[in-house]
Amino acid sequence: MLQPLHRLCRGHTRYLSTSLATPQSFRKWYQQLWTTKRTNLPPYNHFTQVGDPVLRDKAAEVPADYVNSKEIHAIIDQMVNVLRKYDCVGIAAPQIGVSLRIIAMEFKQGIKKDLSEATYKARQMSELPLTVMINPQLAVTDYTKHKHPEGCMSVRGFSAEVERYAAVKLTGLNREGSATELELSGWNARIAQHEMEHLDGKLYTDHMDRSTFMCTCWETVNTKSGRVEIPFYK
Predict the structure, then answer these.
(1) 53-223 falls under which CATH superfamily?
(2) pLDDT, tens digit, for every residue of 107-147?
(3) What is the pTM of this model?
(4) Catalytic annotation on 195?
């Protein structure tokens, strides 16, 4: 299997053992009282969450010989599956626990019906067909900055205003390993910048307008007297 795939996330499920097996030392016995037990391995079918070390690592490039491999195709398939399951517009491989430089983006026309016409226009949104980029590189083509609310499925339940460049150019390899280039502007340029940051171990919270950071369901929390849960599955 492709070597970078072994950079697995650390699980946090604990189990308690109370038996003292001789001739183990007390220290070894004590260390085994609380141990890490993996019950689920990447590529995940959910979004990793802030705090997971994979989100702070700089992702490795996919070696040229592996670009068109079944392992990479399986990772891409899982990324697209998670992207669509959660009705998102962008995803990076670290968000499913795989520290490789792969992103996928898709802005469906149907999103428009969930937004006001004013919001859709102000944020310069437009349809973007499913786009997969392996080992992408980003160049800014319009340094004008726009500030809009932004969220992240790896910082579930929160959002903040973030400044992004107005237009960018992405270059990289498509799913089949062919060189590709894409010019993006408006909201789609924002998606690309957001996902590219994931590949460098960054989150939007690193450079957001901190005064605008908010829980996206704060009103519901008050209405329901705090009886609100933020799901991490779907």
Answers:
(1) Peptide deformylase (3.90.45.10)
(2) 999 998 989 999 999 999 999 999 999 999 999 999 999 99
(3) 0.83
(4) yes
